[in-house]
Amino acid sequence: MLEFSIKDFIDIFLVALLLYYTYKLMKASGSIKIFTGILVFILIWLVVTQVLEMKLLGSIFDTLMNVGVIALIVLFQDEIRRFLLTLGSHRHVSALARFFSGSKKESLQHDDIMPVVMACLSMGKQKEGALIVIEHNTPLDEVIRTGEIIDAAVNQRLIENIFFKNSPLHDGAMVISKKRIKAAGCILPVSHDLNIPKELGLRHRAAMGISQQSDAHAIIVSEETGAISVAYRGQFYLRLNAEELESLLTTEN
């Protein structure tokens, strides 16, 4: 007679949770078919080794499984990195890290955000495209290094000048970190998520890419429509007004 304890329930629950988050990660990166293929291969391996007990074929599958782990790490290194970044930037994990390090969280207030909001509204009216990334718990040092270092106070006029159509930095992304404009003209990772609507352009895909790899807010001002959108934690918030934009940017992480 089979015995089912609370420990077995926790074990099954954790495995199901791991598979669920792995599925979400693969779906976001457009690798869902590869993930399905891996699950089918594991199922066949279990049937061959545990149910049918085929020794020769089972040994071949065992060898493939051992080599396959290394191959998966190489193949999905970006997804694994994204998962670890997401785990490390989780609000509870970040709070625990701050507790042991003795540092305090710097939250963005109304006065910190309003220059950004006003600049986005102004650029939206003039249909000047913009992409602004606001760093939170996940460091964006690698992204900052791809652009031109500015390290200036957050200022509405400065933001508008950087994204002016004739500016040499208007095509890249601006990164705001620790309440300062750290860099402009930065290159962001582009999301290949097939679920992104086709009418959204490269700026939106770049914003989604950084939002999937960090806990940053990525603000997009459309050059075609002037609409203001935000990508945050792998989700789009489209056609925002001033109040909605401010509320979203001051959301606790």
From TrEMBL:
The chain crosses the membrane at residues 6-23, 30-48, 54-76. It comes from the Bacteria. GO terms for molecular function: adenylate cyclase activity; ATP binding; diadenylate cyclase activity. Signal peptide: none annotated. It is an enzyme of class 2 (transferase). SUPFAM superfamilies: YojJ-like. It catalyses: 2 ATP = 3',3'-c-di-AMP + 2 diphosphate. Residues 77-242 form the DAC domain. Keywords: ATP-binding, Cell membrane, Membrane, Nucleotide-binding, Nucleotidyltransferase, Transferase, Transmembrane, Transmembrane helix. Its EC number is 2.7.7.85. PROSITE patterns: DAC (PS51794). GO terms for biological process: cAMP biosynthetic process. InterPro entries: C-di-AMP_synthase (IPR014046), CdaA (IPR034701), CdaA_N (IPR045585), DisA (IPR050338), DNA_integrity_DisA_N_sf (IPR036888), DNA_integrity_scan_DisA_N (IPR003390). PANTHER family: DIADENYLATE CYCLASE. Probably a homodimer. Belongs to the adenylate cyclase family. DacA/CdaA subfamily. Catalyzes the condensation of 2 ATP molecules into cyclic di-AMP (c-di-AMP), a second messenger used to regulate differing processes in different bacteria. This is Diadenylate cyclase. It comes from Bacteroides faecichinchillae.
